[in-house]
Amino acid sequence: MDERRMVRVSKYLSKHLRHQPELIGIALDEGGWVDVDVLLQAAGAGGFPITLDELEQVVAANDKRRYVLEDGRIRASQGHSVPVHLDLPVVEPPAVLYHGTVGRNVAAIRVEGLRPMNRHHVHLSPDRDTASRVGGRRGVPVVLVVDAAAMRAAGHEFMVSANGVWLVDHVPPGFLRFPG
Q1: Which of 33, 70, 163, 173 is positioned for an S-S bond with 65, CB 3.0–4.6 A?
Q2: 36-45 and 52-61 helices cross at what angle (nearest 10)?
């Protein structure tokens, strides 16, 4: 499959496995899973046919490992705006995590901290480079440093998704270090 098709399939999956499953007539279970056969049939009926081989290639080749394929089912690793419970265990985070954003968001973050917005959790990166790539999707990246050890000591709970994205309900501004 060529790169353009790979991106189109991945974006299609993201839209329907994270945000709008009802648009193609599928229902995610409480963990965000849907049977692969159901997804493929719905995609085809909705005018965007995907083969099983294409689906497997997108899952395997996606550099961000956005999807999990298991026992004939698929789900997005995180980033849902629809109600799901990923059933991830609470784990000890590294001492420091990172969050990539753009400059226009920094003033609000200084006041409110990091909020999940339309998602279930705030997404944090394990390293500065990943956070920079995430922030760079919407402009010139600004990387914030999160004092995860202090947050954990204060009672905040962290989870990590299958693709290594750290998840937390909120990051209050006092736990953030801003550049400059």
Answers
A1: 163
A2: 110
